[in-house]
Amino acid sequence: MTHHWKMFLLGALVVVLCSCASATQPGVVRFGYFPNITHAQAVIGIADGTFARALGDNVKIDPKIFNAGPSAIEALFAGQLDLTYIGPNPAINGYVKSKGEALRIIAGATSGGAVLVVRSDAGITSPADFRGKKIATPQLGNTQDVAARAWLMNQGFKLKEQGGDTQVIPIANPDILTLFQKKEIDAAWVPEPWGARLVREANGKIFLDERELWHATRGEFVVAHVIVSTKFLKANPELVKKFLVAHVELTQRINAEPTSAKLKLNTEIQRLTGAALPTAILDDAWSRQTITYDPIRASLYGSADAAFKLGFLGDTMPNLDNIYDLTLLNQVLKEKGLTVVQ
């Protein structure tokens, strides 16, 4: 064989090997999360390099910060995001809107961490006292908005748009705090740390910890989990598995060393948002949530049922049978000698 042909075949082999590698090992992973305590694994894992080490030197992480689930879903739909930490209702909406095609839930992240806070001077001491009141939620159709509307409906209230006199008003979390302080709203159903902030900065008191409503799951309910683009999952299962190894290890480390974890988390929140949480607020908020890799599947179906009854998911209850793909998570758990999740 001539030298020319040897060089040609070697070049062809390199091209083939490179194309195979790029099909299974992309150079960049677009990684979404919120600068929030409910996304603790993401915030800490990006900051301390845990994800970078797990994914390897040939993979660059492109972190993308979001402040609301719907915008993360839009980015995933637009092909600008591969995986993200997110709340349950935006994930359900994204799955339903894409007819089950766009995404899969691959792990849990956080349970709990949502409360109904009332103004101490609003005269609310029982559920009946919410008649005629204004209750704020972070965003129309978001996880806390659905929870608030479902709870009020179960108490027998008609909301203003249904001809009643009780209002649910979607407002961004920082504005909820301001309006609460100005006494322009009476109550708010919010995720942490906003619950703790309303109590400590705006004379609020916790009327209901949402954990009290989830009897079937022993007080556990998903407030954040991890979703992946279905296309990315199919093309890069080994990479997603490496990510899940890091996610599980971060979950274990945070639970084993919560004091150290909270310090790292708060330092990074300050870097990302310009303001750290006061220690008392962080500790208070942290006490009402659990960091976990369990997706708490039953609570997601409960949230979906509530969203459907409220008219957020169309005219027929969607089939969510394929919204989860826990295969890789359970492989990781089994290899670590941990109990698999359902």
| Neighbour order of strands in the largest sheet | 2-1-3-10-4-11
Major β-sheet, in short? 6 strands, mixed
Overall pLDDT level = 91
How much helical structure, as a percent, in the residues? 40-55%
The shape is: globular
- Ranges with pLDDT <50 over ≥5 residues? 5-24
Please tell me how large the radius of gyration is.
22 Å
For the record, give the distance between the C-alpha atoms at the N and C termini, rounded to a whole number: 58 Å
Counting helices, strands and paired strands, the structural category is alpha/beta
Q: Tell me the number of helical segments per DSSP (H or I, 4 or more residues long).
A: 14
**Quantity of strands, as a count:** 11
Element order: H for helix, E for strand: HEHHEHEHEEEHEHEHEEHHHHEHH
Percent in strands: 15-25%
